Fold this sequence. Notes:
There is one protein chain. By secondary structure, this protein is α/β, with parallel strands linked by helices. About 25% of the residues lie in helices and about 30% in strands. It is built from 8 helices and 14 strands. The strands form 2 sheets. Strands 1-2-3-4-5-6-7 form a 7-stranded mixed β-sheet. A 7-stranded mixed β-sheet has the order 8-9-10-11-12-13-14, with helices on one face. A hairpin with a 3-residue loop joins β2 and β3 (about 20-25). The longest helix is centred in the first third of the chain and has 15 residues, at about 85-100. The radius of gyration is 21 Å and the shape is globular. The N and C termini lie close together (about 10 Å). The model has no long low-confidence stretch (mean pLDDT about 95). Bound molecules: zinc ion (2 copies).
Amino acid sequence: MITEVRAGPYTLRGISVGGVYTTLHVPELDVVLDAGLPLRSFATVGRFFLSHGHLDHVSGLAGLLNIRGLVGGKRATIHLPAEIEGPVRDLLRAHTALARAELDVELVPMRPGDERPLGNSMFVRAFQTHHPVPSLGYQFVRRVSKLRPEHHGKAPEEIARLRKQGGPGLFEEHERLELAYATDTLSRVLETEASLLESRVLVLECTFVDATRSVEDARRKFHLHLDELIELAPRFNNEALVLMHFGQGTSPDRVREAVQSRLPPGLRERVVVFAPEGDRWFG
Ligand SMILES: [Zn+2]
Ligand SMILES: [Zn+2]
């Protein structure tokens, strides 16, 4: 029922059908991306990231928090676009009134460019996506310190001696783009947030994959078409490109067939289709 794929060093578990429901768990980062369905095993994860307020991405939120209360989980943190903080608060208030039980959450409103620490030298940076409602994508980044190039090749004892001296400039800080999540967006996001093309793993929506819908249809709905990715293929430098949020009009088998037959070699091998085995969507 739950789809699980590997992408680079990461696991992605969950369900994603465009317009119906999307929720993904990345255990290595301990995060849930969107909450379109309250999946039992996601309820113990501490951090949630909402891309926007469309119901296929948020309608499972209260259910998840309810299950979380059941299993005694600590207060959940929900990162979300600043513009939808009020409506999400109203939504949770209504659920609290219905159930007469408090849903314990901390909302973290974010704007494009905002960063929040996640521990273990990781942080998240929000970026602008392009959809008809307030929307964000999230880039998960690791800060690593590397030996400056002028010290490369020096013996370990020498490095240790310099380190002891405590002089400045032995190491420099680097940002390693680990995993980016961009859903419900025009392909323009790949220009406005070019770092997506360099992220080790990119999780990207691809609502339409074949000629049943044109690129213009996709753009009118503020979504992405496989044709656009084919055109941009040489620019993806990702170790893995995970495609998700396919429309339910195309079966999982047909999605796989379209992606494999239409993407050029060089990119095709790095693409992971996030869809269940077989020819039927869940539910
Ligand atoms: Zn959606
Ligand atoms: Zn949407």
